[in-house]
Amino acid sequence: MAAPFHAHQQGEALRRGPQRPARAFLGTGVDFVVGIGNEAVPAMASPAAAQAWLQQHLVPHLRAGARVTCVTVGNEVFKGNDTALQAAVLPAMESVHAALSALGLRDRVNVTTAHSLDIMGASFPPSAGAFRPAALPHLRPFLGFLSATRAPFLINCYPYFAYRDDPARVPLEYALLQPNAAGVADPHTGLRYDNMLYAQVDAVYAAIQALGHTDVEVVVSETGWPSRGDPDEPGATPENAGTYVRNLLRRVEAGQGTPRRPAAPVGVYVFELFNENLKPGPASERNYGLFYPDGTPVYNAGVHGYLPPMLAASNAAPQVAIRPLFSSASSGFV
């Protein structure tokens, strides 16, 4: 494979279970992202709390040889109306970054947070991408922090949602990243998009540039396609899920950039490694995994070349409640 494998792992899940997932991936080229849950974000503004969290959830894995590239502070905090949490994110990130510096890890581990695409007020055409006005007071200093620390802007993108909500108007081939999709053209730039994911990424780049930053990388921290859904969730099939992931892998392996940034390969993390059988909500929420909890594949995603022996064997996955993301990106994150 031309690109390395990466995994996104919540801190709690990273350390529990009879087989520790991070250690199972030692020597495989897998990078991990460790996440601080939303409920713990306000406390991280305390330098002592940030130091203690890193000592418990990060340092042991680094000492064991795990490749942890990023700590994410919260997830999709601007999606809801918790203004106190939203105001706490940047101070917490600054505190965690200072704690990493004190540990001598500042140049090894980035600090950021992941955003829902709902943070966008406009996303089409891509060149007109703009953040929601209500988020701007937080995003301006946040982008300044990312620029100063050279950390990525993480965005969770799901073309499936757009197709599910309006299958009559959103072409399935466009959402599935099919190379023969007719696509759409940006009327302002003339750039042509043959898939929705790259249009979404370029909309985020446009929104960031509109706030004065051209040096912040956008990384897709979650994307995927469900293999099963409820009757009112069209397109959620194993065939479509496999098509989406395989098409995504081909583009990433080829080092393909977006029309706006053709020379910059897109960093992408696929959601997710295992189905979450106990997750509430519609059926699709429990069926984004590449594998069942026992390690057998849900469909042929063409990913075995990325996996360590414990997963490539299909039936040897760790019996542990983990929420990883696998990727062909070279960046780390949530």
Automatic annotation (TrEMBL):
It is an enzyme of class 3 (hydrolase). GO terms for biological process: carbohydrate metabolic process. Coiled coil: none annotated. Its EC number is 3.2.1.39. It comes from Panicum virgatum (Blackwell switchgrass). Residues 1-20 are annotated as: Disordered. This is glucan endo-1,3-beta-D-glucosidase. PANTHER family: GLUCAN ENDO-1,3-BETA-GLUCOSIDASE BG1-RELATED-RELATED. One of its GO terms (molecular function) is glucan endo-1,3-beta-D-glucosidase activity. It catalyses: Hydrolysis of (1->3)-beta-D-glucosidic linkages in (1->3)-beta-D-glucans.
